[in-house]
């Protein structure tokens, strides 16, 4: 277990996952945040209710957008905690609470086919007032389905 | 009633709305395409299941993304039919069938508060192989909540 | 002449234009900010040095990107001054000085043909820590050549 | 030396670099495409004429936009040739000739400081009618300054 000052980072990341997993819309889509070591992933199983185009049986682009926005946001929050200074933990908590998406771009790379979709993210920039995160959504065969980049403010 | 060559455009737009309204994910979110004259709008009522942040009671960004992507796509399809030449109607049908989102940018302008959210779109560019559409989502008080711009290929 | 508290807004907007017009890269491209009432426009004349594709004699996309980024930035700065409260003018000056582009999307709508290109912008969102601006570049015949949307932080 | 059917790919990539290097605007900014094995890079040396903000002595964002758009485009063209089938080489040439930027997003990650800036790109999606490319611009110390993602049509 790692501690950043007084923060037990594993505990904090677990709490973030729990908070996202109880968000109503997130739950409505049956999405889940899971912790793999210190990396958070977002997972959603293919389901009839998530299909956009019945003829082609592919995931609706809005599901990918939701997943990418969410994994970008939670990974940014986790990074804020990882970099938190024990003397300024109140400031970090305030940033995490305020964090909101300013804008996002999604590129649809391949048709949304698969049994499961997995989202991951990395922080490209972490500034005083906002950050930039890159996100990917792969299917269960490791194929890149969609990629995103988003700016968050806090 | 207007006819573009052999196409009765009102009938075609009604059919497009019906097709979107039976898409599983669209239905799962309780979104609806409605025809107002020859303009298509996308409507969704606020609902507990669409909330992202319980503390602030605001719409999840993924709902806005789904609405913007959808209204952009259907308005592009409608425009393809409006510009269709009766001699090349088969070509238009093929384009509409193939139409897919290549990329989309969403800007979140104001917190997603309201009783209802309404999406509208306009085509900025219509090329041989793709088009560019701008989309807006307002709430029931006329406040701009989110704006989007997307490229579609066909 | 309008005054916002102690600020003479016309004078401030003139100063902003002057500051941009002396920026080396801006000058290298022969771009100019001009004040039309209280609206700032960005103007560039077509020139051999700005051509991207010799065969088609069209403006390089990078010229449009430079113009859109610049007009969005200066209009955001002007808006900060227009909304400035005389009691917090130091805060406004700090924001204007710090203002930097976080991200920008450009959509190329029509080939860059024309004798002159004119950029304009409007502020869509003005927050505590950043803003969102939409920009357009038309040619001298009023044709929309490119549109942009950008997030700035301050 | 590799040959793809009848194409000598090294020769083709050299020709692409030469074509870009004679583009007027590219030349005006003193940018250069260089071939490193089969990878094309775009290089620009810091110069007084490329500065946006004199006080901070940083590169104008428009220079980064030009570099990212250009490296994305040339790498997409190179990839079209690399994947070309000797039986359809005329089709590939037509695509390369037609290739144009549809839209681009740029994220500014760090202030544009450095003695030299180097752009690289990778193709994320290559479709029948268009492709998606991700681009990065680093400075001579290997620091990421800006990243982009663009859709091109052909």
UniProtKB/TrEMBL annotation, chains A, B, C, D:
What are the residue boundaries of the Thioesterase domain, all occurrences included? Answer: 57-145
Q: Annotated Gene Ontology MF terms?
A: acyl-CoA hydrolase activity
One Pfam entry for this protein is 4HBT
Keywords assigned:
Hydrolase
Q: Which NCBIfam families match?
A: PRK11688.1, unchar_dom_1
Write the protein's name: Thioesterase domain-containing protein
């Amino acid at each position: 277990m790692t501690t950043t000052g007084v923060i037990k980072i594993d505990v904090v990341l677990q709490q973030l996952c729990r908070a996202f997993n109880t968000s109503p819309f997130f739950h409505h889509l049956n999405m889940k945040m899971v912790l793999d070591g210190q990396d958070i992933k977002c997972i959603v199983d293919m389901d009839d209710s998530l299909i956009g185009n019945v003829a082609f049986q592919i995931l609706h682009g809005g599901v990918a957008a939701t997943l990418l926005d969410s994994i970008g946001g939670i990974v940014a929050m986790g990074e804020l905690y990882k970099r938190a200074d024990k003397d300024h933990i109140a400031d970090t908590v305030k940033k995490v609470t305020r964090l909101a998406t300013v804008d996002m771009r999604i590129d649809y790379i391949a048709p949304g086919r698969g049994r499961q979709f997995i989202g991951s993210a990395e922080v490209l920039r972490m500034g005083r007032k906002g950050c930039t995160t890159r996100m990917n959504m792969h299917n269960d065969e490791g194929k890149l389905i969609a990629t995103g980049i988003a700016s968050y403010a806090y």
